[in-house]
Amino acid sequence: MAADLNVRTGRHCVFALHAHLVFVTKYRHRVFDDQHLTRLEEIMRMVCGDFEVELVEFNGERDHVHLLVNFPPKVALSRLVNSLKGVSSRRMRQEFPELAQHYWRANRLWSGSYFAGSVGGAPLDVLRRYIEDQARPV
């Protein structure tokens, strides 16, 4: 197992913790195009880096995004999600003011809920291919 590239080491531990995250836009509005998804990936990679989390895979569609993250045991997934959604919402609203028409009732981009699934039973390459195959808007 030590040869497995998905295994990471910390100061006092060896771990392979992966989660599949899905964030949906507020009111499930179909707001993203390819430019938005590209920028969202950049923002989310930066936030993950701040948490020492590896963003293994990212993709999305017009109304939601999928992330596959490899995270250390010291990271509370709920705190990571909170930061990912908060920072990306704020940055996207600043950089793309035209998105404002889709969240006029609530000054946020994302729905309050999210999906988080632990990944371990299915091979990671299966999940990676699933996320890669998510259709990007044309």
TrEMBL record:
Residues 14-134 form the Transposase IS200-like domain. This is IS200/IS605 family transposase. PANTHER family: TRANSPOSASE FOR INSERTION SEQUENCE ELEMENT IS200. Pfam families: Y1_Tnp. InterPro entries: Transposase_17 (IPR002686), Transposase_17_sf (IPR036515). Transmembrane segments: none annotated.
